Amino acid sequence: MSEITFSNEIVQYLSLASKYSGANIKDCVVEDDRIIFVVEKGDMGVAIGSKAKNLEKLRTLFKKNVKFVEFDEDKKRFVENLCKPYKANSIKIEGNDDASIVKIEVNPRDKSKLIGKGGRNINMIRKLARRHHPIRDVQIL
């Protein structure tokens, strides 16, 4: 788990997303054509909005694909949230508390989607997991 510092660009994204969604947003990661916001536990519905209005508003505003992920103090649940919309059949955490390895077992037909083209989805999962919990690596089984 690392100290999170935000660039001016990220602060602007966080501010606009909070303003338009009404949700408490903890973190934001921008990568090429997408932005992933980590919202406080319990704020997922508020963030997305009725009939996904907030989500669509932010997609139009940022001209990027927008995804919300719900934060959880529990490592397993947070990683499970990061994997959505794909369902993890099991999540195992190995190692000690300050440098654990998370192993995710998914349906074989979802494995390539969860990894993403060139590993972009799994790299994002790893990055966010490390930013919020003491996780050394995330592996897909």
Annotation keywords:
single chain; 141 residues; GMP Synthetase, Chain A, domain 3; 2 domains; 6 helices; 6 strands
Notes on the structure:
There is one protein chain. With 141 residues, the chain is an alpha/beta fold. It has two domains: 63 residues, GMP Synthetase, Chain A, domain 3, CATH 3.30.300.20; 66 residues, K homology (KH) domain (GMP Synthetase, Chain A, domain 3, 2-Layer Sandwich), CATH 3.30.300.20. The strands form two sheets. A three-stranded mixed beta sheet has the order 1-2-3, with helices on both faces. A three-stranded mixed beta sheet has the order 4-5-6. β1 and β2 form a beta hairpin. α1 runs antiparallel to α3. The longest helix has 14 residues. It is globular. 26% of the residues are buried.
Write the SSE topology.
Elements: H1 8-21, E1 25-31, E2 34-39, H2 44-48, H3 53-62, E3 65-70, H4 75-83, E4 88-94, E5 100-106, H5 108-115, H6 120-132, E6 135-140
Parallel strand pairs: 2-3, 5-6
Antiparallel strand pairs: 1-2, 4-5
Quaternary assembly: single chain
Question: How far is it from the N-terminal to the C-terminal residue, by CA?
Answer: 23 Å
The CATH homologous superfamily of the largest domain: K homology (KH) domain
Return the CATH class of the largest domain.
Answer: Alpha Beta
For this structure, the CATH topology of the largest domain is GMP Synthetase, Chain A, domain 3
The overall pLDDT average reads: 92
**What helical percentage do the residues reach?**
40-55%
Which runs of at least 5 residues are low in confidence (pLDDT < 50)? Answer: none
Number of helices: 6
Estimated radius of gyration: 15 Å
The biggest beta sheet reads: 3 strands, mixed
